[in-house]
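Q: I'm building a small set of examples for a reading group on sequence design. Run inverse folding on the following structure and report the sequence directly after it, with nothing in between.
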């Protein structure tokens, strides 16, 4: 049971049900198995869980200071790299302090705990649902400076978290590096994936990703408190867990519902920037399949439903429904174009390129690879309207219509609403088993910026028709171009 003023649980009633004890011992045995698996790191008198982090950050720092920091004469890039270098130094400082305390205190207590577990001398506190596999079930073990939580997680096995009490903290101060049109979207992308608001109303994040520590600190300018709060004992490795608190941003993030609402009102460019860190936090990138995917659990999906999800669908994301987790994917040329747009911001590209050198930044490396992938030119008949790619349909009467087709009515309605909210009087109609959202010829003529995009698409379509020898189609396109007063193009020979 919880005790006021104490972060640790205390015993309530004793549990003696043999079936519950069996469930508990299954988790304890998994804990002991992983300890044995990582014995050379956890129980050595010379090696610690922090060594790999120290070595990797030191090597990254050497590369940054040795060459990267001098590559550009742009003062904003130099300032960004200087900030990331200073953050890395703070991380190394904390990791070295944690290493010393591990050898002096934490390791000894862990060894004592193991011996007591073998002699059945440890009090094990449990909570959750032992017999409902769809619910979490946890065991808690405590020493003076260590708190261990072994959790049966629905659908993903067992998670083991080791919290370190009295680990040192420090502060990192970073300047404002990004413009307002990029800074807030980047912050919200981090906050709505792995961030939270603590009891004192400060934005904070717990992460075991080295790149994410640096990214958080350079996108939440000002003073941040940071410390190593523990580690995760995984099947194959040990991840150090960091906690970061944006001290100078109290009350600015408010709560996730309000932040999600704010994201839904971002401009097109701001929304795409938000998606970058959302994907890097909760998604994956497949270069071979040219796919960008966002993974969303039930609770987050409920929060993002409506505004954020609708805008994702409008730019080409398709949903793949699952019982517990939902996937939203964008594929092929659209995925490559999205990756390129993300990297079109110079500072964002520099940050991603530099952080991609870290071992846990695989998504960064895939993003860079995807953006450089060769693709066929985007559909010659496609134009972008308020973030929605629509097909230019040439009509027999010399007119033109913009169309986009969807299988599901709710997807089509989301696109319709998106277009209407940006002053395009779009319409929706069924077409066989599909639903078509369209912008009529008369509506196109009301928007000169749309006429310019359609003329450019018609020019590409005309070139293609001429190249293929489709004389009749080329004349039809030329007629529409004439009606729209598009710049003249070479007509096909009779």
């Amino acid at each position: 049971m919880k005790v006021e003023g104490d972060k640790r649980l205390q015993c309530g009633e004793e549990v003696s049900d043999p079936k519950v004890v069996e469930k508990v011992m299954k988790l304890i045995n998994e804990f002991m198995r992983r300890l044995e698996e990582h014995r050379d790191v956890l129980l050595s008198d010379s090696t610690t869980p922090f060594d790999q982090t120290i070595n990797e950050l030191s090597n990254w720092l050497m590369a940054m200071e040795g060459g990267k920091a001098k590559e550009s004469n742009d003062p904003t890039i130099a300032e960004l790299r200087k900030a990331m270098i200073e953050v890395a130094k703070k991380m190394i400082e904390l990791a070295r302090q944690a290493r010393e305390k591990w050898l002096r205190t934490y390791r000894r207590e862990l060894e004592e705990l193991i011996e007591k577990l073998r002699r059945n001398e440890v009090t094990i506190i449990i909570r959750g649902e032992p017999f409902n596999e769809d619910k979490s079930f946890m065991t808690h073990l405590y020493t003076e400076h260590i708190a261990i939580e072994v959790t049966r997680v629905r659908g993903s096995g067992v998670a083991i978290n080791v919290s370190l009490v009295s680990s040192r903290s420090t502060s990192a101060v970073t300047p404002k590096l990004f413009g307002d049109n990029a800074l807030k979207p980047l912050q919200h992308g981090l906050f709505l994936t792995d961030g939270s608001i603590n009891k004192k109303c400060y934005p904070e994040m717990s992460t075991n990703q080295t790149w994410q520590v640096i990214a958080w600190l350079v996108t939440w300018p000002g003073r941040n408190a940071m410390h190593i709060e523990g580690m995760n004992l995984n099947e194959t490795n040990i991840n150090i867990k960091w906690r970061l608190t944006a001290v100078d941003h109290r009350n600015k993030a408010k709560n996730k519902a309000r932040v999600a609402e704010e994201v839904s009102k971002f401009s097109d460019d701001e929304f795409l920037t938000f998606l970058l860190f959302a994907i890097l936090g909760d998604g994956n990138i497949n270069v071979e399949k040219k796919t960008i995917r966002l993974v969303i659990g039930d609770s987050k999906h409920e929060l993002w439903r409506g505004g954020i999800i609708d805008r994702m669908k409008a730019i080409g994301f398709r949903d793949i429904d699952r019982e517990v987790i939902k996937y939203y994917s964008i594929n092929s040329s659209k995925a490559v174009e999205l990756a390129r747009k993300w990297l079109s911001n110079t500072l964002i590209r520099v940050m991603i390129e530099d952080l991609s050198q870290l071992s846990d930044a695989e998504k960064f490396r895939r993003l860079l690879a995807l953006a450089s992938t060769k693709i066929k030119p985007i559909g010659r008949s496609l134009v972008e309207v308020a973030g929605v790619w629509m097909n230019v349909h040439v009509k027999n009467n010399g007119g033109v219509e913009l169309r986009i087709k969807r299988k599901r009515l709710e997807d089509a309605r989301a696109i319709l609403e998106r277009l209407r909210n940006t002053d395009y009087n779009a319409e929706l109609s069924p077409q066989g088993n599909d639903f078509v959202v369209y912008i009529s010829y008369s509506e196109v003529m009301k928007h000169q910026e749309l006429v310019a995009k359609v003329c450019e698409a018609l020019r590409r379509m005309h070139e293609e028709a001429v190249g293929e020898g489709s004389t009749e189609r080329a004349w039809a396109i030329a007629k529409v171009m004439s009606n729209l007063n598009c710049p003249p193009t070479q007509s096909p020979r009779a």
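The chain has 17 helices and 18 strands.
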